Amino acid sequence: MWYDKVRDADPELYEYIKSELSRQQDGLEMIPSENFTSIAVMQASGSILTNKYSEGYPGRRYYGGNEFIDKIETLASERAKKLFKVPYANVQPYSGSPANLAVYFAICKPGDTIMGLDLTHGGHLTHGWKTSVTGQAFRSIPYHVKKDGSIDLEEAGKLAREHKPKIIWVGYTAYPREFPFEEFSKIADESGAYLVADISHIAGLVAGGMHKSPVDYVHVVTTTTHKTLRGPRGAMIMVTDKGMEKDPDLGKKIDKTIIPGMQGGPHNHQTAAVAVALLEASKPEFREYAGQVVRNAKALADSLMKNGLTTVTNGTDTHLILIDLTPFGKGLGIFAEEALGAAGITVNKNTIPNEQSSAFYPSGIRLGTPAITTRGMKEPEMEIIGGLFAEAINQVREEHLPENKEELPAYLEKFRRGLKENQKLKEVRARVVEMTRRFPLYREIELSR
Ligand code: DSN
User: How many domains does the chain have?
Assistant: First the structure.
């Protein structure tokens, strides 16, 4: 039986794992940055490799006993280099934010100017947002999207010429169209900046040939490993040939910034699981998966729009869709997220371009197809899911955020009570469960009832 030792040692925790497994199995996981790893990835990340300390790098560690860990880390890093066609890869970052921080401190000094897409327009906290240390340690100049939702390249070029940033970030967390690597390479080269592609969201699409690779255009690439790439939680930093030409020591500087600069011992179990995921991502089946992720997202966007919902940029090129709820009212994201949640569909509320409400009570819903595609769902299911979204969102389109913020807790409490009683949402929930049963997830994992 799976996790039987956890059950024996810690029955309380075991119950939570069991509940979370059922939640994953019986719902539609549609947060675009989530996915379901293979059992092989989970076995590697749950392995005895968690026991070992290995500060340093293969062949130069601060601790003994690393002869096999060296092989594992080298394997992961060589697979990353081969898959993404880069000369250098560091596979030690614990996750995406530390990976991005390491890039900053390898290239910049505190106070230097940096540029990234504004968080509320689809960027990331670590691309210079004011509440992130990256917006505090550096002088952050954000660029934006235009009214139509596409990146404002003209503004970005103007800002780069004016402020001469040390780093420009190209890579987004809530942008449904192809990332403009080539356009930004001109902007960065003209202003002398290092161009860093954060491909966390689209790494699996790049590996699977469904999104243009940034490698010919940028100096550095960062990515998490657990989104479309379908690995364990983790991250990598890669330097391209173009980056090596700009600074032949860039790889060494990044290595040093990770350890001893920022991190301690690498998470070897995670590195091993990254190695497994990279091998999986190099297979023809993964190309097929990446293709289906995008075909599904396009089919789903079409179905959402056919069912009366508005999507930012009227569709998608990637795995990600952003629903704009402003035709129904401002700040409806929280109501839609919770109504969909009650129906067994997990998404996240998100700001939309030119947000009229706030980052905490935004007017959009962000969703994506990586996880449901891993389950095997295809275009016919997307057609149905678009209808389910519309039915759930229709239940809350008359909602509104109270003008007086103090009334909000009571308002939300009443709203949540209403969700529990909502017959329509119960019907949608039943259809979601019926659909998920046709696409079993982790059938191998048998837990005691
Ligand atoms: N949390 C990630 C996402 O959902 O896009 C970004 O860090």
Answer: 2
